[in-house]
Amino acid sequence: MLRLIGARLMTTIPSVIGVIIVTFLLTRVLPGDTAAYFAGPAASPEAIAQIRSKLGLDLPLPVQFVSYVKALVQGDLGQSLTTGQPVTADLAQRLPASAELTLAGLLLAMAVALPLGVLAAVKQGSWIDHLCRVVATAGVSLPVFFTGLLLVYVFYFLLGWSPAPLGRLDVFASEPARVTGLYLVDSLLARDGETFRAALAQLILPAVTLAIFSLAPITRMTRASMLAVLGADFVRTARASGLSGGKVIGTYAFRNAMLPVVTTLGMVFSFLLGANVLVEKVFAWPGVGSYAVEALIASDYAPIQGFVLTMAILYVVLNLMIDLLYGVIDPRVRLEG
Amino acid sequence: MSAPALLEISDLTVEFATRRGAVQAVKAIDISVGKGETVAIVGESGSGKSVTSYAVVRILDRAGRVAEGAISFSGIDLVAASEAQMRDIRGREISMIFQNPRAALNPIRKVGRQIEDVLLQHVQATRSTARQKAIEALDKVRIARPEERYDAYPFELSGGMCQRVVIALALACQPQLLIADEPTTGLDVTTQKAVMDLIVELTRERGMSTILITHDLGLAAAYCDRVVVMEKGRVVETAEAGAIFRAPQHPYTRKLMQATPRIGMRLRDLLPEAPAPLASAAAAPRAPASAEEPPLMQVTDLVKAYPRPASGSVMARLLGRQEADQPPFRAVDGISFSVARGETLGLVGESGCGKSTTSMMITRLIDPSAGSIVFDGVDIGAIPARRFAASPLRRRIQMVFQDPTDSLNPRFTAERAIADPILQMNPPTSRDALRARCEELATLVGLPVELLDRFPHQLSGGQKARVGIARAIALNPDLVILDEPTAALDVSVQAVVLNLLQELKERLGMSYLFVSHDLNVVRLLCDRVIVMRSGAIVEQGTAEAVLGDPQAAYTRELLTAIPHPPA
């Protein structure tokens, strides 16, 4: 098993190298001049040139690339000019925030979408099937910033049920001792119910916003996949042998229908992780998405490169986990290795 | 029958709701099955035989419903029974075995667990005894080493083995009635015999009743007490097995009987009446290939080897660890034969014997590992398969594929499908010329010209088979490889297609390589026969010699496994 994982990881090395080269080149090709941006609008050309040479941006591209890779090998992603912090520190601070939000959103979405999809397939053409269609269509049709703002308006402004959408914790609560970086987990580990409640209260609205958006692909895929499996011969055999409805749907159909659903989950997760910038903006969530966008606007190379590289590695790890999960679900995959 | 019937179907009508209104798949049929009796329901596709059995255990699609009639099973009204009652009956009182055993089992659950599921559902075992009972059930269907097989997944077992597991599953709870729906379709003859013998023995041992649903009259005759013949949703004849074959009453039964290939028949005997010979050519006496004339194709020491899957991991290989190399698997292991001009050569064997690999090498779709294929003086085996499509010889070797539906592009009309090879190899000067050629070909294969604009899903199985044949002969090939061209067709359609192939061959002077597992069909169509097993030729000779007086033990085994209807 370990050997298999090792072999799989080795095959991803070329793509990671590719990502390093492409992001490096892309950031250099993008319009915008870092030095001019940081020198400010009133700076003289000399001042800009001075900053440029200080940042090493006047060196030829290959030289810049070599020094970038050298630093990278030592685990140094460079310095962010916007925050003044090392990029690794910034990412380590912000990635758990994004991960917590995305995971919570995804778990919520799964909790609704999987049963809904299964029910829609089992009772095809019934009201629940139509409900499934409406929910899925509405979820993707509403842009996340709109659902986000609507939720804030209703639950914070009108009803006052949720706290102000200002990041991961309200100003009065203190951060839990850092173990995983996920506040919910850390506060539980620290047995700090107060912080847990505070973090949860902040998390609910953005997580629901994300969940509404990701409901659609998961529901649709679950429904389609279940429909295909329910028509399969072995489900007919199971029914003809008198197995109960729950057994047929749960053990026989659902597990077989899981494969495409797991693939979809992986895709939705990796998509959300990088793409929930709008949600992060609406809820002032200190995640990686907004960090990367801010860096991009400032032509701040190091954070962008760091962000893309981190995402690429996360994607690789996620895909590996999905492949391993396939093996758990389907013995035929295990054989192929 | 003096004993009261175990299953009594009376006046049963099953309807399916479709977009164009309700369609009756089964129309007012009466069937009864006595205790311990074995009844066959015989019919071609669309006769409603499977629907009848699904109605009995109430596993019809959601679109289907019992519109009228009654089904009573030892006094229980199955039409009115509640779903909970039905669940107790399914598997415990009435069990089913299905076609395509591998698909009938849950692909990601151990077979032992699947048997346990049924045992636990019907309270035939407790959690602690389930495993033991499941292993016993596997043992009863003669699966060797049942303790190990308990942990096997369906994909690790052969088709015949899977069917044994399905039988074990069906008989685990000692039901009173077994419904076997085409249990051996798609299995090799020897496997078919083993599976059928097992079913009969086990059901007889337990005094069970059996309904065998099949399209194969021979199978029905060999294994059943009574035969019910169905056509288009109606029962047309019910009689004792012996009687129905000696004196079939209904014209449809007679037609079915006649279309079933048997020993001592000629190809034309399969058709209801002697058809007028196609167009001009009267069947010319078959030109025997003279010894002096060089054969059209000479295959010598043909080998196809595949490397065995590597057991070592990528890491091990990266670290330079060498593993003992296993010899490659030889799917075709040094075979030699020839095809004479105007001859039909049969290539016979069970699945995995290498007959498809051989036909694909000859068609030049894959490259041989060794050996030569000399076609009309040219060693085409030396031309790589990738480049053969551009060779002028490509048009002289064509193929008719096994599944008439899957081998047609669903988005091509019949005309476009037939025109495809012409457009690839020999584009005609004008649109009209192409249309004219397609119409000519359609007429040749007996496809009504007005059907040329239809798509495959608008054609019947027989019509699709004709399109496939027209496509193969569009370039006037010298050799046509027929890969089980009638395996997916009903017997009456098969009879027509086989006759068509014979007539075309005589008219156009082609040679055929006929790949099949159906020895009765091979006997009718082929001049010479090659019997293959595990990649090697076991026996070859004229059809009469090989199939009439087989020398190899394996050929004899194949022949005796065929169920014969009493002639």
Helix content of chain B: 25-40%
**Quantity of strands of chain B, as a count:** 20
**Count of helical stretches of chain B:** 21
- Indicate the structural class of chain B: alpha/beta
Second CATH tier, the architecture of the domain at 297-306 and 327-561 in chain B: 3-Layer(aba) Sandwich
CATH level-1 class of the domain at 297-306 and 327-561 in chain B? Alpha Beta
- Calculate the terminal CA-CA distance of chain A, rounded to whole Å: 9 Å
Q: Name the beta content range of chain B.
A: 15-25%
Average pLDDT of chain A, rounded to a whole number, is: 84
Please, what is the CATH homologous superfamily of chain A? Answer: MetI-like
What is the CATH third-level topology name of chain A? MetI-like fold
Domain tally of chain A: 1
Rg over alpha carbons of chain A: 24 Å
**How many β strands of chain A by DSSP?**
0
Low-confidence stretches of chain B: 276-289, 312-317
Describe this structure in words.
The complex is a heterodimer of chains A (337) and B (567). Chain A is mostly helical and 337 residues long. Chain A has a single domain (87-336), classed as MetI-like (MetI-like fold). Chain A contains 15 helices and no strands. Chain A has helices at residues 2-29, 34-39, 45-55, 61-73, 87-122, 127-141, 144-158, 183-189, 193-230, 233-240, 245-275, 277-282, 288-297, 301-329, 331-336. In chain A, helix 7 packs across helix 9. The longest helix of chain A is centred in the middle third of the chain and has 38 residues, at 193-230. Chain A is globular and about 85 Å long. The relative contact order of chain A is 0.14. The model of chain A has no long low-confidence stretch (mean pLDDT 84). The two termini of chain B are 27 Å apart. A 6-stranded mixed β-sheet of chain B has the order 6-7-8-3-9-10, with helices on both faces. Chain B has a 6-stranded mixed β-sheet with strand order 16-17-18-13-19-20, with helices on both faces. In chain B, helix 5 packs across helix 7 (159-171) and helix 15 (414-425) packs across helix 16. By secondary structure, chain B is an alpha/beta fold. Among the domains of chain B are: 1-93 and 211-260, P-loop containing nucleotide triphosphate hydrolases (Rossmann fold, 3-Layer(aba) Sandwich), CATH 3.40.50.300; 297-306 and 327-561, P-loop containing nucleotide triphosphate hydrolases (Rossmann fold). The radius of gyration of chain B is 26 Å and the shape is globular. In chain B, a hairpin with a 2-residue loop joins strand 4 (64-73) and strand 5.
